[in-house]
Amino acid sequence: MINEVDSQVRKTIFFILIIVLAGVIIFKLFSLQVVERSTFLKRSKENYIKKIVLKPARGVFFDRNGNLLVSNTHSFNVQITPAYYNPRFNRLLEDLLKLKRGTLARILKNRKNFGGFSPVRIKKDVPFKFISWYEENSSKLKGIKYSVELQRDYSFGVNGSHFFGYLGGVSLKQLKKYGGLYAADDLIGILGLERSYEKYLRGKKGYKLFVVNAKGKIIKRYKNGALDNPPQKGKDLLLTIDKKTQIQAERLMKGKRGAVVALDPRSGEILAFVSSPQYNLSDFAGVTSPFVLDSLSNDPDKPLFNRATLSEYPPGSTIKMLDALALLQENIITTSNIVNCKGGLQFGNRFFKCTHVHGRVNVIEAIEKSCNTYFYYYVQKLGLEKLAYYARMFGFGRKTGIDIGEEVNGRVPDENYYNKVYGKNKWTRGVLLSLAIGQGEWGVTPIQLAQYAALLANWGKTVRPHFVKAILDSGSRQRTNLTFDTLKVNIKRKYLDIVRRGMFYVVNRKGTAVNIALKDLAIAGKTGTAQNPHGKDHAVFIAFAPYDSPQIAVAVLVENAGYGATYAAPIARRVIETYLRYKPKNLSSVKNEN
Predict the structure, then answer these.
(1) Residue 212 has what pLDDT?
(2) Between vectors from CA 144 to CA 138 and to CA 147, what angle results, nearest 5°?
(3) With a cut of 50, which residues of the chain have pLDDT below it?
């Protein structure tokens, strides 16, 4: 009797298990065929449809007159897929591609976090001779392939390394940040305009769909290409740069250390921009060798360093116009106030020298002759905090906001600064005399000096310095103009007129830069010599022209050269002449969207 009961229980349990199992199977079948049908259909398609990603052409750069500055060119690029590649080929490839020993091992090590199935570009722009060799031996070279891609073409006569910037491999962090926009072997803007305007320049990827067999071999186009999506070229940039002026500025600074920045004082548009020495952007068009980077990084002249926006220098006597405007605006002086210069000024137990014995001078003559004594005397009445206030008004001590990103604030010394550096009540008011003539603890950048010159030229108003005028759509040629912040100083025009007259006399009467005067072009300017405790002084000059209706403002700084009048002023004159005597073309082919 017990056995019959046990048997019946077992039968019941077995029956229930069969029902449950059948239910699970039925549910699973329903789920596979109905609920998850679309998912598995997609996976099925992926098994026989291959997507080939098509990279877009990057947007190019034009100068303000439509002249090409940076474009694209085709190149053969060699790639390695680590999962399939045998490192025993390292030496052979390094020899064929003329790479230094250890290059491939280093590249593969640096890219290991991207996964073994992500291709790694090892060299761009390889010669066709290598491609021919590869085609003959490809069956033996598993994990190695080549592709035809676009790379930057810098063959248009302008270097511009410190504002164009360059491209480099996308980092793992950037891959995560930008989602599916980039792949491991993509390039991205690293510095300069390439980085600042990356979202416009990069374009949009496309793809082609192919039917493949079980071995992955392409059989035909999927649906005859009806679902293919072509890549979209990146947008072009219409720059503010004037090509002819830029080439001239680069030529004039060749073999020198320093910077030249020229801009339109009315619009803030940068016409020429040179940090010297420059570097060869063609070295960065492909996969940049670590040895090239090491060489540039260890070069004592620091060619990778952007002196125009990152170097801080004393402004020298170019600061005297700021002194004068502050004194006039604060009603401390008028043009009637006279100082008798006897070659310097005694302050405490120290004699602060002037450049010459100038005799009796007013503020205009003090600018014209660069009389230190005048500013020693009156800036004491202005005071340190007021001097710092007006310096900041003219943009010193903060970034200009230039659209290449790389920039420092500079330094405007004030009481807080001296208290931090020397301790409270441990510094003397004598620091003000050095600051009055642009020496001491000032730290200004060439781009700030150019902005300062623009404010003086355009009666106290300008626009934030910038390189890009407009974004151009490559297909429609529609143009979207960019706008930038306006900078205006709270100085009365009559005082600006006084200071501008002094700058005119610097070049055109008996001033310190009469050597650059031109009969048919009125240039106004100011020389400066910035003291350098580590060697020969730096030559400084700022200028604008034409005097009555300025179209260009320039700042020139030549390191370890000597007097501004001798070494910096002639460079400024040539830059001004080149721009104002060059008639631009008409950009009639570009539509205005705004």
Answers:
(1) 77
(2) 90
(3) 585-594
Please tell me the distance from the alpha carbon of residue 484 to that of residue 488, in angstroms, as a whole number: 13
pLDDT tens, position by position, 347-376: 988 999 999 999 999 999 999 999 999 999
* Separation CA 275–CA 160 (nearest Å): 9
**Whole-angstrom distance, CA of residue 395 vs CA of residue 217:** 63
- Residue 186 CA, chain-centre distance (Å), reads 20
pLDDT at 586: 41
User: Where does CATH 3.90.1310.10 sit in the chain?
Assistant: 51-237
Predicted pLDDT of residue 588:
35
Per the residue annotation, which of 317, 434, 588, 589 is the catalytic one? 317
Helices of type H across 360-445? 363-368, 372-382, 384-393, 415-422, 431-436
* CA 273 – CA 259 distance, rounded (Å): 8
For the entire predicted model, the pTM comes to 0.83
Measured distance CA(522)–CA(504) in Å, rounded? 8
Based on the residue annotation, tell me whether 317 is a catalytic residue of this protein: yes
How far apart, in whole angstroms, are the C-alpha atoms of residue 545 and residue 236? 31
- Which residues, in sequence order, are CB contacts of 195 under 8 Å at separation 6+? 165, 188, 189, 404, 405
- Pick from 96, 46, 68, 36: nearest CA to 158: 68
Q: Which residues contact 6 (CB under 8 A, 6 or more apart)?
A: none
What are the start and end residues of each CATH 3.40.710.10 domain in the chain?
Answer: 243-284+292-580
| DSSP letter string, 80-149 | E-TTT--GGGHHHHHHHTTPPTTHHHHHHHHTGGG-TTS-EEEESS--HHHHHHHHHHGGG-TTEEEEEE
Q: Which residue from 535, 539, 508, 534 is spatially nearest to 521, judged by alpha carbons?
A: 508
Three-state DSSP at 338 gives coil
Instruction: Starting at the earlier edge strand, list the strands of the sheet with 206-212.
Output: 49-54, 206-212, 218-221
**Which residues face 270 on adjacent strands?**
263
- CA distances 204 to 223, 304, 310, Å, are 23, 30, 33
Architecture per CATH, domain 243-284+292-580, reads as 3-Layer(aba) Sandwich (3.40)
**What does the pLDDT read at residue 440?**
93
H-type alpha helices, 185-334: 192-196, 198-201, 243-252, 290-298, 307-310, 320-329
What angle do helix axes 384-393 and 320-329 make, rounded to 10 degrees?
Answer: 110
Specify the pLDDT at position 221: 86
CATH fold group of domain 51-237: Penicillin-binding protein 2a (Domain 2) (3.90.1310)
**Cα dihedral 309/311/312/313 (nearest 10):** -110
The dihedral of CA 185, 187, 188, 192: what is its sign?
positive
